[in-house]
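Let's study today's protein:

:::
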Amino acid sequence: MDSHTVVTGLDAVIGVVRYVFLGGAALAGLVCAGDWMVRTRRLSPFGAPARFFRKTIDPAIAPVERVVIRSGGMPTAAPLWALLGVIIVGIIALSLLNFARDNVIGVLWALDHGPRAIALLVMGWILGILELALIVRVIASWVRISPYSRWIRWSFTLTEWLVAPLRKRLPTVGMFDISPIVAYAILWAIGALAQRIIAIQ
């Protein structure tokens, strides 16, 4: 199976998933809108539609409703939050599929172009992970999440070796530590330089 066939197959799968997601999101939108109308009494709570939503849809939305209530929200907002969750999950799923497609294309290209291309691909993966870690680290500092949080700690573990020396040498700009931004720029420059060197060779 050649690379063109693989890429064409991946594009077809992604296309099908995209249409399935759009259809599912539209159906979820109708269902959540109906449930919201029942909860807010815009539909009669005594009619057949209301009984259907209370019996079938409300149990499915119950976990979302509990989270909304614990967060201080109104139970009537649960269907809208459930719809938002469906949309977010779909976007993440499509993004992961596109990410996988791009990496499969990268691997096939590297295998066709020899060891230097494979080295460039691996370096791109490493730099991409480090750049993502720096972005997570910066966002965590903006929203004041502890660096020791289990969700954030990995980003500090992966990047502290680069950020710490920069922090010692760079001045702060007002209240902001610019060392992660400088570290990101350094990683980007390394990646661009590596691509140019390998392309020349």
